[in-house]
Write a structure and sequence with these properties.
It is a single chain. It contains ten helices and five strands. It has two domains: 148 residues, 3-Layer(aba) Sandwich (Rossmann fold), CATH 3.40.50; 70 residues. A five-stranded parallel beta sheet has the order 2-1-3-4-5, sandwiched between helices. The chain starts with 7 loop residues before the first strand and ends with a helix. It is an alpha/beta fold and 231 residues long.
Length: 231
């Protein structure tokens, strides 16, 4: 499918826009600390195994899955550790804008495409995007923290399309996860671009109908992939 069929591009925030390198490092440290407070010592090897398991099992909330795995299935302990990890959220406020992504966002808007957010993010992320000068490019300015839907719930994607006034088939979804971005977007008939980065960089589709239409690992490749679809 090529232009003029496409009318909108939806972006995840964590991964494509925000590299989240420091954010993820702090979350890892907070998970280990929360489990230690519960008497669970976590080795780097055990943490790596739990992370790989969470990613490969398509856990919607990877942090909850990692904690539960490391807690040895003790759900009550895992729930307490998860709550403790969330109580530390106020110190994990860094936003690391991916180099070059602002230019791609501006370029897409200049091409006449509508832009929307499709992200599991707190409401304050909208203010951060405004402060960085890119919030103004997004016509759909809602995230999970404002409307209450969380990926992979397809209602999050449908809300974006409804707000933009476009059909799902007219959208391109850019995200960094097969489970939360590509699979639900493809289920709705969207075209998908997987930005392989971060914790889920090695995630693989379980079948051909979860495979992205394009895969990229940097911003120039992302622009080239989007240009292919919209030209």
């Amino acid at each position: 499918m090529r232009s003029p069929d496409f009318r909108a591009v939806l972006f995840d925030v964590g991964g494509p826009i925000n590299t989240e390198v420091e954010h993820e490092r702090l979350i890892d440290a907070d998970i280990v600390a929360a489990l230690a407070a519960e008497g669970v010592a976590v080795t780097p090897e055990a943490y790596a195994e739990a992370t790989a398991w969470a990613v490969s099992s398509f856990a919607p909330d990877a942090y909850a899955a990692i904690i539960t795995r490391l807690a040895g299935g003790d759900l009550a302990l895992a729930e307490r550790a998860y709550a403790a990890m969330h109580r530390r959220a106020d110190r994990r406020t860094s936003f690391e804008l991916r180099e070059g992504i602002a230019g791609v966002i501006a370029w897409l808007r200049g091409r006449g495409l509508l832009l929307g957010l499709a992200a599991n993010q707190p409401a304050r992320t909208l203010d951060v995007l405004d402060e960085l000068g890119i919030g103004r490019y997004f016509s759909h300015r809602q995230v999970s923290g404002t409307h209450g839907f969380h990926k992979p719930d397809v209602r999050l994607f449908l809300a974006a399309c409804d707000d933009l006034g476009v059909a799902t088939e007219q959208c391109i979804m850019v995200g960094d996860r097969i489970d939360n971005d590509v699979a639900p977007a493809r289920l709705l008939g969207m075209t998908t671009v997987l930005f392989r980065t971060g914790r889920h960089a090695a995630q693989q589709p379980r079948s051909w109908d979860e495979a992205p239409h394009a895969e990229v690992t940097d911003v120039p490749a992302l622009r080239a992939a989007l240009d292919h679809f919209v030209t």
